[in-house]
Amino acid sequence: MPIELGLFALILAGTVAIAQSAVGFFFWRVGGRITSYLRQGAVLQFLLTLAAFLALVQAFVFSDFSLELAFGYSNTLQPLLYKITSTWGNHEGSLLLWIVILTGFGAAIALYGKNLPSDLLALVLAVQGALGAAFIAFSLFTSNPFTRLFPIPAEGRDMNPVLQDIGMALHPPLLYLGYVGLSVCFSFAIGALISGRIDAAWARWVRPWALASWAFLTLGIAMGSYWAYYELGWGGWWFWDPVENASLMPWLAATALLHSAVVMEKRNALKVWTIFLAILAFSLSLLGMFLVRSGILTSVHSFASDPTRGMFILIMLTIVIGGAYGLFAWRARSLRSGGLFAPISREGALVVNNLFLVVAVAAVLIGTLYPLILQSVNGTLISVGAPFFDLTFGILMAPLLIIIPFGPFLAWKRGDLIAVTQRLLGAAAATVLITIVLVMVSGGQISLASLGLLLGIWVGIGAIAQMVDRIKLGRTSLSQSWTHLKGLPKNAWSTMLAHFGLGVVVLGIVSVSAWEVENVASISVGDSIEISGYKVTKLDVSQRLEDNFVAERIGFEVISPRGKTTITAAEKRVYTASRLPSTEAAILTYGFSQLYITLGDVNADGTRIVRVWYKPFITLIWFGALIMAGAGFLSLSDRRLRIGVPKSARATPEPAE
Amino acid sequence: MKWFLIAFTFFSLATPAISFDPDEMLQNPVAEARAKALFSELRCLVCQNQSIAESNATLARDLRLLVRERLVLGDSDSQIIAYLVARYGEFILLRPRFGLHTYALWGFTPFVMILGIVILIMRYRRKKKQGPDIEPSGSLMTKAEQNILSSLQEDTGSKK
What is the ipTM of this complex? Predict the structure, then answer.
């Protein structure tokens, strides 16, 4: 019964979405009463999809195998957490989660958007309604999660063992919050194009949504990266997999959007460009959805699929992207741009930032799509892998990292590069000094890694220098600097933290790419492997029986260079229901570095192959990402940002024609 | 032939065997470093987007052995790559060759970069000639900021 109610709720939600969209597009000029209907519609739509989602979750929790989906992807032996996460461990369920989040954002606009002018709010909710209707139709017509099964099987199949992990509870929801959050920016862009309401106030309304999506995307990507690192068993943290790229592209576009929205808000410039980016960011997240769900790729992420789904998304993609950019091309000419600025200025620096980020999107996009295009054109099979991306992406990121510390120091409108350079001299000297010391310590070789190290430290120290400069440390008394420090707005803190976090990420990447050490040996109990001063000794072999898997467990004793002894274990599991194997690495953390131990096969002579890596400072990659996301949320908590611009202060909408 | 080979290796992998054999490493550290560098350029043909350096599949190990074998025989890096491409097709290269079929791939990024720079310069020149279309909105924003400030103060005031 709950299953049918869930389906019914989803159909109702679709109807509400269609009504919301139609009413919004036809009556957006009316204002007042209409917007209150639309807002109620958005909230109702969310409650209905949430009900549908909960109906699905309960079927998984209570192992109701009359539901085809629950039979296909869950099992009575699973722990409760994995029964719940199995709900979105498949195409249909994850699509419903996507829809819940989409309508949730719609409801959030309805609740927080009271300050918005009624015409813009009506249009934004109309676009959200149209998106909701499209996705609900996609779910109902091609991927109905509520299909029943008869006769009812006694036991379900299982979820892919790789996905039976806490990561499944966090990674997809976080990522979806990011992807779908960008739909709000998209709706605002469409609303602005139709109503002609494109001004500094618009940027102020959009920025919190862009910030939230960006922060969630950052968390989602970092979480996915760490999950792949500890689960897939070869210690890689980024593979340039098409699906990873599909998440990186919206992230890069959202990063660019955040920066250009600042210019629009503060200087009323780059307006057309900001709208372009808002559309681009969401288009890229839809493209990601197409790559994952159409079945044109094979990856850990792809779902079993049939051609109708791919076709449906492709049509949706064409309408959304084509329609949005068509509207953009039609209206953008009529939009006036304001705010003249010199090339050397804060705006100029942010434009360069945008240039590099968008070209980086282009590089990732072509690398991801080119093999697919070439194959469909003349059947030639080529691979575009890590070496291509490392090269192109690396070349683009290096200059961007160099200019980052300059940006916040430059004045708006017209900056003085020489004065800024003078103010950054201390930071530059410190950067060079620290790099030289680190290079000496790590063996004294000048290489590409030294350059990377220099860049990472430069960005980190540049962020600190910005803070020191803002509080006038050393230029006034200490107590006065303290007063400045306490008075700093949260936005200043978040800029500094986000850039600092980026520097930390770069250091982690450079360090592990350049100084990772690997050792492989066939060992029996009592033998040990030495690596970077660590001694890994095989202790014992045991069996572990759990409800849903059987594991062979190898215990290890690890003695660190400082003499600290740790006992750990790595496993090879076989999942009972699906018979699928999975390896669990043993990972030990020392400071920011990690020791990574995985098991290979058993040799004919009874010894076992054991592979050990020493990964120096690898955790900096994820700590840095956490700092960046934290900076995003900090900025979001700034009251000045959330309140928005009161209606009275609104600029009169510019003439559209 | 290539497809038969891939299919064959795939089916022989019915249980994904993990086999990285420690004994396969070369004694000469220079040659071993060259081998490692080559591994990360070569795709494990039966895996999902992994290089043969990363993969635990049997095919990846066989390819590693093959590369090391050719190295010991004295082949140069480009000879080894040419040999592998002849045998498995260009699909094995993770860094596509520069050629007629990949001009668009390699050229796209620089093209977008140059396009971006040209547009920026043109816009800047036109803007400079025209002057700002509307007055820079400094005054507007100050007013807006003031309104926010006052609404903030009201807010905190009403709470007390």
Answer: 0.85
